[in-house]
Amino acid sequence: MNGYIHFVLGGSRSGKSRRAESLAKASGQSVAYIATYVVDPTDEEMRGRVQRHKQQRPADWLTIENRFDLGNLVRENRDVLFLLDCLTLWLSFSLTQGRSSEQILKELKETLLLIRELERSFVIVSNEVGSGIVPLGAETREFRDLCGSANQLVAAGATTVELMVAGLPLVLKGASRAFFGPEDL
Predict the structure, then answer these.
(1) pTM of the prediction?
(2) Quick check: is 6 catalytic?
(3) Which of 15, 20, 22, 40 is 20 to 30 Å from 166 at the Cα level?
C-alpha cells in the first residue's frame, strides 16, 4: 500500500494523543515523533504538559522539535512511522509566519502526496475546532476555517480516520486498527 495515513482527531482532552501514541507503540516500527509546539518559556503550565508528553514517550523514539518543513522531514526519514502531534499547532505556527491559508493548504496537500509517493506511514493528530460558536474576531475565524479545511484535506487522503470522544475512537473512515502491520506499508 502506498503511504498509510491514520488520522486521529477530536476535541480538547479527548484522548487523541494517547490514541496516536498507542497506535505507534503497537506498530513495532521505529517512530519519528514530530512535535509541533514551540514552547513559550513564560508558560509554566504548557511547559509541564510538554514535559509529561516527553516522559511518556518511549526513549527509542526519534523526537523532532522545531521543524515545520514537513515535506523535507518526509524525504529525510525512511523506515519510520511518523507521528505528527499535532496538525493544528503546525497550522497555527504557519499562520504566525505570515503565510496565507492558501499557501499552507497547498504545502499540506503536497506533503500528503509525497507521503503516498514515497510510501511513508503517518499517524496525524488534529483538533476538531469547528463544533463550537463562531469566533468574534476575523483572525480567529480564519484559523478555525483553516483547521476545518486542513482536516477535510487530510481526511480525504487518509486510509483511516478516527474521531476521539471521551477517550473512545469512533471510526469515520477505513478500518480501526490496534496496530499497523506489514500489509500497511
Answers:
(1) 0.90
(2) no
(3) 40
